[in-house]
Amino acid sequence: MDHNYSSPTTALWLGQSPSLEKSSQILLREYPHRSLAIATDSHALILRHSIAANDAVANAFLASPSLGRQRMTALESAAPKCMVEFTRRTEGLLADYRPLTPRPIYGTLGLIALERDVFLCVITQASRVATLRPGETVEKIEAVQFFCLSSADYDNVPALDPYDPDSDAASIYSQGLGRQNAFIEHPCQELQKLLGNGSFYYSTDFDVTNRMQDRPVDAAEFDIDNFDESFLWNSFMIRPLVLFRSRLQKQERDALDASRILTSAIRGFCRSWAIPQSVAPLSSARSGLPSYLTVISRLSCKRAGTRFNSRGIDDDGNVANFVETETTYWSPSGVVFSYAQVRGSVPVFWEQAAGLLPNQQKITITRSADGTQPAFDQHFHDLEQAYGAVHVVNLLSATKPGEHELTTLYREGVRNCPLSRPGGGRSRDHALLRETEYDFHAETKGPQGYVAANGIRRHIEHSADGFAYYLAQESDDAGTPGGQKRRRYVVVLQQEGVFRTNCLDCLDRTNLIQTIISQMAVESFLGHRGERALSDFWSRHANLWADNGDSLSKIYAGTGALKSSFTRTGKMSLAGAIADVRKSATRLYYNNFADKARQITIDTLLGRMVGQAPVILFDPISDYVAGELQRRSHEYSTNEKIHILVGTFNLNGRTEGLGEDLSPWLCPPELGSIQPEIIAIGFQEIVELNPQQIMNSDPTRKQLWERAIKSTLDQHYGRGGDKYVLLRSGQLVGAALCIFVKASVLHHIKNVEGSVKKTGMSGMAGNKGAVAIRLDYANTPICFVTAHLAAGFANYEERNRDYATIDQGLWFQRNRGIRDHDSVIWFGDFNYRIGLDLETTKGLVKCGDIETLFENDQLNLQMVAGLAFQYYSESRITFMPTYKYDVGTDVFDTSEKARIPAWTDRILRKGPNLRQLAYNSAPLRFSDHRPVYAIFECTVNIVNEKRRDKISREIYERRKAEVGGDTATLIAHETDDEDLIGYDAIEPGLPPASSDRQKWWLEGGKMARTSISPPKPEHPGSQTILNPKRPTNPHVPTDEPDWKRKPVPPKTTPVQPSAGPRPAASAPVQAQPPKPKAAPPVAKKPAHLAAPVSPASSTAGSIGSEATLHGSGSAVDMLSLALPPAAAVAEKPASQRLTPTMANANGFKSDLSRSLASLQAQMGSSQPGITADMRPLQPMRRANSSAGAVGVAQGVKRSGTAPPAGGIPLVGLAQATAAAAKPMAMPLPVSPPPQQERKPPLPSRKPTAPIPVPGHGHSATAAAAAARKKGPPPPPQHPQPQPIPLRGALAAAVDLLADDGASELSGWEALKPSS
Questions:
Q1: Is residue 288 within 8 Å of 8, Cβ to Cβ?
Q2: pTM, to two decimals
């Protein structure tokens, strides 16, 4: 995007309105129902108030503290409702609407209900004040208007003058002086003045609520879902629209975002200065473009309020006047710098009453130290989660009694906070929470004055170096397949800690110290690049911070900041001193006479008044479309397979390998002709982990290795292959992660984010920890984690804790963790050792006994015990230990330390869509470790957006025609159940949706019931049955239809139930065609597992002989009833294991073999069938066996807890059994349910490797024969059943009980050669 910098030496575009493409119109339709529309050139957002809400109690009374609990409950349940629709703007859609204002609007801040009416707030005037970098602009709100959605009474009330100099005067908030004598006073007048006082900012280009480090590095991306509600001041008003947006389909959601109708507003300060190239600290070849220096402050709304109405902390850990201030710098050379720091009230429970005498307001402590500690700990826990380590800078006076008392409580809170305890006997310098007490007044009392405040540098410089800063650079290889160049940023460095500064008000002293800290960060950034800034640059920096202090002080205290004269010029003048006296007097007036009314207005804006309820929006048509699209997902989505190469290498701090050939590691022979779509490379000890390095992350080494990897990939794939681009990289001191992707698949990749988690020195140091990068490949979320865990032979418990800390404490945007991904790959130096002595280990290595070595591997044992990496899998290890070698040789450590060889470098995976193809080490000898690599085949889901949009539009138009018009402009009669408009029964025979007035389960006092009949067959000679190939899980995408047509076989006489032994069948039992009238529905009972019994004591006959099947009967259902859960099969003795008996949904017991024979008779003899190879489930154990193929245990769900000892849950069989219990129109005899459900115990732990049993071998047929010999006398034999095909969940269930070559039954399996 090109910009015209007409005045590069002044603030950018001061007073310039936003561009027209960011504007829209506000329109009104009064008949037949009052509706408001926000319209752009292509779309319209239409809202109409629900008449049912008019019966609610007026919100004008919500502020009364005398309301009883009963009345409060009634108010909370009377939330106002509005109908909403977002639709494409077509000809005639807005023909009945007229403009409400001749000027354009710049988005909406949301909806609010006041005095029985609902109001829509829109921005009517705004001006651009900042450009963080090209494409990221910030506007200041100059004026807003509230338009009533439910009444025309306020249409002609004059709007406030945004340039009225008295708009923020005290009389406005107290006696009402200065108000216009209008006949009707607008209920939102105070809100209008508050939002238009110049302290609110918004952006339609990027998420202004998050700092640069916490949002996508690509400036073109804008994610409403990631708003930080701590800084989103219109969160209460905009939340209904954001929830409505989340229910839209992607096409409509993208169109709504592109329309810039929804606006996120922050409060605080934002301004940019353009730095001409002549004085810019970083030079650029792009002549003529200035650099941008920006300061942006975000005031938290969690404990918002005025000076004496909001002090200290609350029970949720929120503090008053909490502000995040970010300094950013963008250079045309392609560099983006960001540094954030915070301020906030002293985090203890205290109050201070306003008084007319300055500096005489008494401080009152309202809670003891013990009572304060939980809230104190919560506050710093939240800071640590958001920013990393915290260094407190307390500027309170040590001589003033009130401030001294606060300092004492503050010091005690820090000492008792868990984050301040470094652990391991280390000093407090290694804690996550540190404190520096710096008496500002005492330090600046001498002749130097405020200049002496620079002495703070020596107290905080150590933490400043460790916290680092955020840095992103333009990629040099941002090419596309078409050869076009586009600018793309790659994160180089991240800020890993924050300074929290406070004085009493967190205004004047705090702003001056934060200016110094910001200057230190910029100096460090420039110093690492060998540059320095001129005085002109620092002058602009100082002026920005002085303006920031004035703005924040006016919000909290009513006037500009004191000491701002020194902040601007570096010296204190007489005029500045006089200005400070005037500001102090003005503050007294505001604090005593205006702040209480201002506090009420703030609480109303934030929705905190007693009983205040948000507006409810609903759009039945869009909700119906979402459900239909989910059901038809198989029509627009497909699965494709991609390949991922993952490598990990502990470099031992060496750089000798930069010039070596890395192709044995990055282009292994197992790839063959495959070119992986994604290459993820993890490094450990990329720098030497000495005491000077563990607190800082120098990106220089990482960049050198990135270039070496890129060079190797280009050389190997440059001839005829796609080029690779660096997608993103991250670093935590010695650990680094680089993600390279093929240029041709960049369009499939989105939502790329990075995060780090320290575990060294109890989380303070980065010598140990993890770096993670996540991305969405099409519609499949994938996460890569490289970790360096605690060292030491016996420290496996500490390594387990490191894993748990990373797994539970590493977070991306949207509160998304590692486990919130379909595919996760962990790799790195996990440091788990082999639990044998040196000589034994070397002897086993020499003879190649990998099996014995692996049996003593610490990681294997911890995973088997469920103490680490729960539900992760590792492929078979076929290579020698990767640690520790003499550098340059294949000889294990011969030094005095004599390290025991071990597989410290590992690659683990989790996800049912991952299939591993290779796992090996590479012969690179320039480190004491060997690099390890793995190749994966990943199944990703790709949605055809055009096809999906077409289906969505068809469903929408059809439903719209059925309902009868636009939802928000509906002419249908009003009812109290308007939220159910458009909701009919989802299927014939099912009841409609319920409401407060109509509940289908109470109709006539009868039990709920429904019947589902199969579709009528197309030909008389056929019948309709459930499709046995359809997955039992109805939510799994499939191309299989629900029903299947089957020719009607010749009629035979049905076998009647008998109490005696079942006779030998001479002909297959045939299913009768469906009767004209379905039998009455029967209340279904859940299937229970019966105890193992002999055939002689069981009820005679199987389900196939005791019940006459009708057209809706299905082989799938019969098989689901016949197959017992896996745990029952594993529990039974060998004599009964192949003839399991269970109770079906109607209480009948069925023998498995007879059921299969009967089932085959129902399906015909020409279909393939189920093999009888049904061995009991192997217990969960990781054995280094070569038997079996690559796969993932289908039955194990993703979870953060350890699997139960002795086995894993068999979800596949559970789903199959549950599917059989669904209501169907097939009358079956009903017998009483069992008195008590018997749950068989889990199978005991047994070796995973197949153990030959005499007479059994590996043949399931032989096992069955032996079982029959040992068991009770078998029933008469039936004709040999033919195989029956199984797919989906049933196939997975049978596989789990059968040959383990198709399923991974634990965390270990062998490799299957790729086909």
A1: no
A2: 0.58
